[in-house]
Specification:
single chain; 611 residues; alpha+beta; Creatine Amidinohydrolase, Chain A, domain 1; Creatine Amidinohydrolase; 3 domains; six-stranded mixed beta sheet; 21 helices; 28 strands
């Protein structure tokens, strides 16, 4: 199994650990310390040795930050994790904060004492974050203290070792473009802008640029590595040789020098010593790295990671690979959902279901000679009230049975060498209430609105986000997460800069893959989410139109629970889309399924609905 269901949260240690951290303040000359979820690579998924936030507080979500002062400790999370936070931390030690509307730099201005000295680990914060903190502290007469070491690391006596996952080559058959071409393109752009080099600090960008993959963090196949790409076309890759073998080192030697990660600081200082202009993405690069450039005499030129946008805009090979991966994944999902439909209420638990789905994906992968490499995130397997926890992670303690009359939500994904998948289906266990069906249909309407959207060039994610919410808004409801996130090509299941959300100002470009996942959550009662992956493409010409449009093509094919839909709440066009989607799902997946019972289930699950 790629997923563990053991309890990893340890809130019982929160008080002692927060006290020990505070006891280090005087020696460090600080009054507070900031603990982000991110690691030195600013990643969403971090190795065990970098789970500092979880170690201190007990909170295991993928986004958050804790501010510990001499008298308070606030854990800032977004709307996805409010319920989880309350369950995972000691409320007598840590209070909840709003990461979106009142993040730490805003909270400090409103609540911190005058003259506060805030300590940070410069390797865990980006340049943008540091500037925000400095500005906030200036308003209250405080100061930011750059610490020489992280005090938590000294307290964490049994801290795990750094990972040494093996590196693999992502062949041209999956990548579509040679790494030498990608490096040459980046170098040419640097030369045109009179830049000496670009520091690529995001491991996913490193993986994409060099056509390599890794196994250092859970569920995201990139190696923890950084790179320097120079305007003259040369490149340095800072990757531990314990992660590479003879074949991979020979491959890398064709395009770069492979250096140990410990060499990065000296190399960066040497490159900067003549006043060289170095491109740095301030959102993705730790403040510590940018400071090396400045202190060595170099010029930090802030700009976008040169691989970020090209990585987001998938080429034809990547799109075709993703489509093939989704068909395979869809076949596994159909087999799984057939099994679930034939299971009696109360007979299986949330863990049973998650294990069954992973096993099904693995078996189908073997039969189709495209093995399951990993899951793309821990499966969210939530029944009844657990489905209302947006990022619920079932454990041996929280595990419960799927009972009659409730909704069951399963959000899961897979990593295949040709693509990354992410799909959510909500199903009824036995007969459910009309209220369940009503909200399910409202969520479905939002998903269809995104699926069928047509929009001009220049449209941003924030422009489309309301389409997914209008039906819920009219019912006096909403959901507390973005409508969609970017997805990588056998890389991170959460990829930027593309998103569909209130905050996304990135233009949507042809080739970008995104999720489409509106939902509705009633704490303590039930939750609903329906998710497909889609990609941006040129749309067909519209009769009577006078300008070209973009639209979305659906990648995910898997039945949506017909029994939960109230047809009368759908417009004619929405009902047509729903029936057409099921017809295409049946046609696409039936040839991949060989079991007679599963074929019969798919046939029935994709029958058309009518008023």
């Amino acid at each position: 199994m790629f997923q563990s269901f053991e309890v990893t949260s340890s809130p019982q240690f929160g008080r002692d650990r927060a006290t020990a951290l505070r006891e280090s303040f005087d020696a460090l000359g600080i009054d507070a310390f900031l603990v982000p979820r991110a690691d030195e690579f600013n990643g969403e998924y971090v190795p065990a040795c970098a789970e500092r936030l979880a170690w201190l507080t007990g909170f295991t979500g993928s986004a958050g930050v804790t501010l510990v002062t001499r008298s308070q400790a606030v854990v800032f999370v977004d709307g996805r994790y409010v319920t989880q936070l309350a369950e995972q931390v000691d409320g007598s030690v840590f209070t909840g904060g709003d990461l979106v509307n009142e993040p730490p730099h805003v909270w400090l201005v409103k609540n911190a004492s005058k003259g506060l000295r805030l300590g940070i680990d410069p390797w865990l914060h980006s340049g943008v974050e540091v500037r925000r903190l400095e500005k906030a502290l200036e308003e209250i007469g405080g100061s930011l203290v750059i610490l020489p070491h992280n005090p938590l690391d000294k307290l964490w006596s049994d801290r795990p070792a750094e990972p040494l996952g093996a590196m693999a080559i992502q062949n041209i058959a999956q990548a579509g473009v040679l790494a030498t071409e990608k490096i040459a393109t980046i170098a040419a752009d640097l030369a045109q802008k009179n830049l000496k080099a670009a520091l690529i600090a995001d491991p996913s960008s490193v993986a994409w640029t060099f056509n390599i993959r890794g196994a250092d963090v859970p569920h995201t196949p990139h190696p923890l590595a950084r790179a320097l790409v120079y305007a003259d076309g040369k490149a340095d890759l800072f990757l531990d040789k314990r992660k590479t073998g003879i074949e991979s080192e020979a491959y890398l030697a064709q395009m770069c020098a492979q250096l140990p990660p410990s060499a990065l600081a000296d190399k960066l200082a040497a490159v900067s010593s003549d006043g060289g202009r170095i491109l740095v993405d301030p959102d993705l690069t730790s403040y510590g790295l940018a400071e090396i450039i400045r202190k060595s005499g170099g010029q930090v030129v802030e700009g976008n990671d040169p691989a970020k946008l090209p990585r987001a805009v998938k080429n034809v090979v990547e799109i075709n690979g993703s489509a093939a991966a989704h068909l395979q994944d869809g076949a596994a999902m159909v087999e799984f959902l057939c099994w679930l439909a034939q299971t009696k209420p109360g007979a299986v638990t949330e863990i049973d279901v998650a294990e069954k789905l992973e096993a099904t994906r693995a078996r189908v992968g073997q039969s189709m000679q495209n093995p399951l490499k990993d899951i793309s995130f821990d499966t969210i397997s939530g029944a009844g009230e657990h489905a209302a926890i947006m990022h619920y992670r079932v454990t041996t303690e929280s595990n419960r049975k799927l009972e009659a009359g409730e909704l069951f939500l399963i959000d899961s994904g897979a990593q295949y060498i040709n693509g990354t998948t992410d799909i959510t289906r909500t199903v009824g266990i036995g007969t459910v209430s009309e209220e369940h069906r009503r909200f399910f249909t409202l969520v479905l309407k939002g998903m269809i609105q995104i699926s069928t959207a047509r929009f001009p060039k220049g449209t941003r994610g924030c422009d489309l986000d309301p389409l997914a919410r209008i039906a819920l808004w009219r019912a006096g409801a909403d959901f507390g997460h973005g409508t969609g996130h970017g997805v990588g090509s056998y890389l991170s299941v959460h990829e930027g800069p593309q998103r569909i959300s209130r905050l996304s100002t990135q233009e949507l470009l042809p080739g970008m893959i995104l999720s489409n996942e509106p939902g509705y959550y009633r704490p303590g009662a039930f939750g609903i989410r329906i998710e497909n992956l889609i990609y941006v493409r040129d749309a067909e010409a519209i009769d009577g139109g006078d300008m070209p449009m973009l639209g979305f093509e659906t990648l995910t094919f898997c039945p949506i629970d017909r029994s939960l839909v109230i047809p009368e709440l759908l417009t004619h066009d929405e009902l047509h889309w729903f029936n057409d989607y099921h017809e295409r799902t049946r046609e696409a997946l039936m040839p991949l399924i060989h079991d007679r019972d599963v074929k019969a289930w798919l046939e029935n699950a994709t029958l058309p609905l009518d008023y």
